[in-house]
C-alpha cells in the first residue's frame, strides 16, 4: 500500500508541474485566471511533496496535517471536476482521492 501511495504522490507532483507549465500556453497575459490556473498546479505540487514528506519521516503530527491537507485537496478537486468536467480533472480527482484514502490507511 505504501509503495502505491508513494507512486501516486509522485504522479501528483508531476501533474502539478505539467499543469503549471501549461499556464503560459493558455494565458498570454498575467491575470486573475492565469494565477488561479498556476495556483492549482502549485497546489498539486505542494500536496504531493507534503505527502512524500509524511511517508518519509513517519511523524504523527506531519501525517495528521497530510490527512487534513488531502481532505481539503479532495474537496477542492471535486469542485473543479464538477465545474470543468474535462478528462484531466477526472484524472486529478482519481489521483487525489486515492492519495487521501492511502494517507488514511497508511500505518503510523
How do you describe this structure in short?
The protein has 108 residues and is mainly α. The protein has 5 helices and no strands.
How much strand content do the residues show? under 5%
Biggest sheet features:
none
Computed Rg: 14 Å
User: How would you name the oligomeric state of the polypeptide chains in this document?
Assistant: single chain
What portion of residues is helical?
A: over 70%
> How far apart, in Å, are the first and last alpha carbons?
13 Å
Integer average pLDDT: 94
Count of alpha and pi helical runs:
5
Shape, principal axes of CA atoms? elongated
Describe the structure.
By secondary structure, this protein is an all-alpha fold. It has one domain (2-105). It has 5 helices and no strands. It has helices at residues 2-21, 23-26, 32-57, 60-84, 87-105. α1 (2-21) packs antiparallel against α3 (32-57) and α4 runs antiparallel to α5. The longest helix has 26 residues, at 32-57. It is elongated. The two termini are 13 Å apart. The mean pLDDT is 94.
